């Protein structure tokens, strides 16, 4: 079977690009290794001290987060407490729930896991029935709703499970990905590849995808419901 000339040319171009990329990476590594090898004892000591200082700062930051309640998923008793919590921390995820809504228990399970993993973010929950002012101000119409707060301002909402594959059986990784899309946690995965495929098979288009289609950002303090 004859090879398609266009495909052969495309393959050759891609191969050439990969070779060029590999060469660039190798050159960069060679430069770094050469720079390291040329360092004298004094320069190596300065580098070591710089890394130690960086580690100390990271540890200090971790202790500061823990002192503010990061690292655990906790319930706050009132609206007044909400304002204090978001004032203290740069990134906050607040789950507005009701005792009678069973899907809130699902959210609780995943947030408890993520709170321990992402101590850079504070994870809290608040009974929506005890927070009528906030519920109205944040336009919370569906329970459960997670409000994502950055620098004291509500930047995004996760309403129900539409953004999580349209299923009660979504994974912790799916919620972690969604929080990463809002830059409310330090996400190390690929934001362009959701860790679920259910919405494509079922024909459900998530709000995240709708926003991308419309060309809108995720920084919204209202929901679409």
From TrEMBL:
The protein's UniProt keywords, in alphabetical order, are: Cytoplasm, Cytoskeleton, Nucleus, Phosphoprotein
The terms describing its cellular component in GO are:
centrosome; cytoplasm; midbody; nucleus
Annotated Thioredoxin domain ranges read 78-161
Major subcellular site: cytoplasm
Keyword Nucleus carried by entry: yes
Entry's localization field: Cytoplasm, Cytoskeleton, Microtubule organizing center, Centrosome; Midbody; Nucleus
Keyword Repeat in the entry? The reply is no
Write down the InterPro entries for this protein, in alphabetical order: Thioredoxin-like_sf, Thioredoxin_domain
CDD domains assigned: Phd_like_TxnDC9 (cd02989)
Protein function: Significantly diminishes the chaperonin TCP1 complex ATPase activity, thus negatively impacts protein folding, including that of actin or tubulin.
How does this protein assemble? Forms ternary complexes with the chaperonin TCP1 complex, spanning the cylindrical chaperonin cavity and contacting at least 2 subunits.
This one is known as Thioredoxin domain-containing protein 9
Q: What's the source species for this entry?
A: Chiloscyllium punctatum (Brownbanded bambooshark)
Its taxonomic path starts at: Eukaryota, Metazoa, Chordata, Craniata, Vertebrata
């Amino acid at each position: 079977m004859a090879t398609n000339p266009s495909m052969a040319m495309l393959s050759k171009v891609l191969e050439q690009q990969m070779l060029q990329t590999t060469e660039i990476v190798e050159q960069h590594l060679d430069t770094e290794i050469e720079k390291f090898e040329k360092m004298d004892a004094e320069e190596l000591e300065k580098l070591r001290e710089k890394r130690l200082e960086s580690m100390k700062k990271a540890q200090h930051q971790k202790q500061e987060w823990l002192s503010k309640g990061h690292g655990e998923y906790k319930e706050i008793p009132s609206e007044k407490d909400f304002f204090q919590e978001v004032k203290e921390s740069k990134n906050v995820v607040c789950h507005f729930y009701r005792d009678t809504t069973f899907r809130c228990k699902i959210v609780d399970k995943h947030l408890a896991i993520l709170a321990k993993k992402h101590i850079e973010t504070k994870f809290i929950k608040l009974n929506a029935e005890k927070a009528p002012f906030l519920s109205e101000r944040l336009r919370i119409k569906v329970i459960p709703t997670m409000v994502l707060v950055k620098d004291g301002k509500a930047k995004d909402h996760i309403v129900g499970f539409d953004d999580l594959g349209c299923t009660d059986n979504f994974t912790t990784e799916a919620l972690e990905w969604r929080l990463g899309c809002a830059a409310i946690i330090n996400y190390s995965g690929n934001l362009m590849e959701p860790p679920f495929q259910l919405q494509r098979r079922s024909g459900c288009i998530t709000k995240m995808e709708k926003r991308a289609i419309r060309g809108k950002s995720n920084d919204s303090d209202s929901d679409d419901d």
